[in-house]
Specification:
The chain has about 260 residues and is mainly alpha-helical. It has one domain. The chain is built from 10 helices and 2 strands; from the N terminus they run H-H-E-E-H-H-H-H-H-H-H-H. Strands 1-2 form a two-stranded antiparallel sheet. A hairpin with a 5-residue loop joins strand 1 (about 45) and strand 2. Helix 5 crosses helix 10 and helix 8 packs antiparallel against helix 9. It is globular. About 45% of the residues are buried.
């Protein structure tokens, strides 16, 4: 990342990240509250109107979205995290078309990561519109850059990431279907940048998730079947954007 060369980009991205991140609690506060877990459900999942799923009965009642949004200084925290991540992406990408879809995804990712960490849910009312937004902005980027290959790569990334997470959701405990939905968005966003970003970002999510699971499990914050994997997927995606090309190039040089 070249902070000096991209200082103007960093400043703009930080400001945009801070402004949009400030409104994250207001968006979360307007989500429909989760439907309480029903014992009569037979498919092994609890569903909520905002679209999250969990694979087992919660160990304790989930916090209400309104209560999460009302936490002291929460807007400051979400604005700060959004500004930081957006600034890092600006330093990495510079003035280039991928900022058009990456910067809007930052506050959305902050919202999803925060909600999932606290409730084990990834609301469909956030994930669904984000799919449409991402597809539209990727189309604009591809047309502006004249890069059909990048658009095709994004589509393949969507399918590959979605299949991998669907397989894990179907055959392993602890993975919620909300993670499957989120994987498609991250797969598109990363693969548009390149295969190295896609591979590193996806793999980093799993590695960080395993490392993060240990303290959460020891502290009894989570269990084997109620693990908030979304935040780790999102952090892994940021790693892919920032360092995926460098890591991919390093590995290619070693093999060469």
């Amino acid at each position: 990342m070249d902070w000096a060369a991209h200082l103007d980009t960093v400043i703009v991205c930080v400001v945009l990240g801070a402004i949009t991140g400030w409104f994250v609690p207001r968006v979360v506060a307007r989500l429909p509250e989760p439907v309480p877990f029903a014992e009569e459900e037979t498919d092994g999942e609890a569903h909520d109107d905002a679209g999250g799923e969990t694979t087992a009965e919660p160990e304790e009642p989930k916090p209400l979205y309104a209560d999460l949004a009302a936490a002291p200084h929460m807007a400051t925290w979400t604005a700060g995290w959004s500004a930081l991540v957006a600034g890092l992406i600006g330093a990495r990408i510079g003035w280039d078309w991928p900022l058009l879809y990456l910067v809007p995804l930052v506050p959305i990712g902050v919202a999803l990561g925060w909600v999932d960490l606290r409730t084990r849910l990834l609301p469909k009312l956030i994930v669904g519109p984000t799919y449409l937004l991402t597809v539209v902005l990727l189309l604009v980027c591809a047309l502006a850059q004249g890069d059909a290959d990048a658009l095709i790569r994004a589509g393949i990334g969507w399918l590959v990431a979605g299949f991998v997470y669907w397989f894990l959701w179907r055959f392993t405990p602890g993975m919620g279907y909300g993670d499957v939905r989120l994987s498609g968005i991250l797969g598109m966003a990363l693969a548009y940048l390149g295969w190295a970003e896609f591979a590193v970002g996806t793999y980093a999510g799993f590695v960080i998730g395993v490392v993060g699971w240990i303290p959460l499990r020891v502290l009894r914050i989570t269990s084997d079947r109620t693990f908030p994997f979304g935040p780790f997927m999102l952090v892994g995606a940021v790693v892919g954007v920032l360092w995926g090309a460098d890591i991919g190039g390093y590995l290619a040089d070693r093999q060469g």
